Amino acid sequence: MKTLTPEQIKGIVHMVAQTREQELNCSECQSFVGEFAERQLAGLPLDEALERVEHHLTLCPDCREELLALEKILRESP
Amino acid sequence: MPIKYQTWQAFEVKSFGEAEMDLIRRRLNWISTSKWLAFFPGWINFSSMVAVEINWPEALRAVDNSKALGELRGILLNGLRIALRDRSDISETQLEDFTQDALLRVLDRFEQFAGRSKFTTWAHTIAINTAFTELRRKRWQDVSLDALTEAGKQLSEETTLPDKALGDDEERTRLVETLRKAIGEKLSARQRAAIAGELQGLPFDQIVELLGTNRNAAYKLLHDARRALKTQLSAEGISQETIRTVFAL
């Protein structure tokens, strides 16, 4: 493995620093992400469950990528 | 077909049967044409303030659900076209395959739909996950577990994670050194491999597959690793302030 770049090291530290005792996993995130996207697009506040979704999204690039795709669909679908 | 009546102020959704919905429609129609409306001009467009959506779970549960399936298939296919529009390497045939797989997953799970979002939004999340998981798997299919385990092992070596990687500052040097030692001493080989996978940009599903586990177990593996590192940094007196300076680089 090549020497890690400062960005990669910061990435690890970020993941460690953001770690909470209780977190949603990807499947749990997927259960709520539809509501999360709808409320985000409507400018509505997030409740506690959705705040946990937001936290998961800061740590999981795959779920984040899927949220962006969903938001694109919701913005453009009739 | 039973239908769902949705107010547009929020996300409150109530279900009505066909007869009830008919009554609501007639009442809305009466309001919008009534002479009394002159006294309530704000109500003029009241009937346009509601959106009517198919009650998808009931439509899919029906003995003859072919019409609902066809409609849902079209919605999901259109959604994937939008989501993957920028990917010139994806053909219409692939989009249709993703849609078909997604539809099967929706049929398998729709009884679990909790109604926290629109049904179609929920179904889109499944379609996106189906398509993106497959695309990521194809991109990273040549990576082996052995390579990942070796990369994980190297994370605890100074050639991969040098003390001065973040500069000469004493606190940053200590942070990197403590992190490297903690990776070597507090994590298992599988945890190190999973972290190495993330650092290399491997999709989570690919890490899951290489580790021969499932998404939830792999997430727990990584979560436990992050917790162990956090605990060790804290035990070694690495403050939040030091961590904040790392991000201010």
Task: Give a quick summary of the entry.
Chain A is mostly helical. Chain A has 4 helices and no strands. In chain A, 73% of the residues lie in helices and 0% in strands.
Descriptive account of the structure:
With 78 residues, chain A is an all-alpha fold. Chain A is 73% helix and 0% strand. Chain A has 4 helices and no strands. The longest helix of chain A has 17 residues, at 26-42. The mean pLDDT of chain A is 93. Chain B is mainly α and 249 residues long. Helix content of chain B is 62%, strand content 6%. Chain B has a 3-stranded antiparallel β-sheet. In chain B, β1 and β2 form a beta hairpin. In chain B, α3 crosses α5 and α6 packs across α8 (189-199). The chains are: A mainly alpha (78), B mainly alpha (249). The interface between A and B is large, with 43 and 58 residues.
Supply the helix-strand structural class of chain A: mainly alpha
The stretches of 5 or more residues of chain A where confidence is low (pLDDT under 50) are none
| Helix content class of chain A | over 70%
Strand content of chain A: under 5%
Overall structural class of chain B, as computed from helix and strand content, comes to: mainly alpha
Cα(first) to Cα(last) distance of chain A is 47 Å
**Which range does the strand content of chain B fall in?**
5-15%
- Mind summarizing the main beta sheet of chain A? none
What kind of oligomer do you see?
A: heterodimer
Architecture blueprint of SSEs:
The complex is a heterodimer of chains A (78) and B (249).
Chain A: H1 6-17, H2 26-42, H3 48-59, H4 61-76
Helix pairs in contact in A: 2-3, 2-4, 3-4
Chain B: E1 3-7, E2 13-16, H1 18-33, E3 50-54, H2 56-61, H3 66-83, H4 92-109, H5 119-139, H6 145-154, H7 170-186, H8 189-199, H9 204-211, H10 215-235, H11 240-247
Antiparallel strand pairs in B: 1-2, 1-3
